[in-house]
Amino acid sequence: xxxxxxxxxxxxxxxxxxxxxxxxxxxxxxxxxxxxxxxxxxxxxxxxxxxxxxxxxxxxxxxxxxxxxxxxxxxxxxxxxxxxxxxxxxxxxxxxxxxxxxxxxxxxxxxxxxxxxxxxxxxxxxxxxxxxxxxxxxxxxxxxxxxxxxxxxxxxxxxxxx
Length: 162
Prior knowledge:
With 162 residues, the chain is mainly beta. The protein is built from two helices and twelve strands.
């Protein structure tokens, strides 16, 4: 389990949503949140379809708080310039924690990222397969137009690699 920390003070337990699916799900379908949820990368959030109001902290890549707001259900927050991480908690949590713009936060006890080597086994008997970053021609586009394909990492069953 991960913890949200300011200086040497633990503020809350922390769920980290750093995959597309986890960020897409976010807090939807929940009645409450114990602790906080960190979304990365993210510059803006919404509360459309949510059941409760939240506090939102927009942070830069070093987890320095740039802006703190509260959002009622069915609202959309404007993107924050320089923001790359968003921390969400139930309304009133940031006031209890004393969280304000300018605070420098840290994450302790975060789950390790996937293995960097495609051949390194991970828990559950799966291996990570990576696609290389490459340029591909865009069909129907003007001559010489290309698009950059991002690095893709996905779990594959070991028998599929042989």
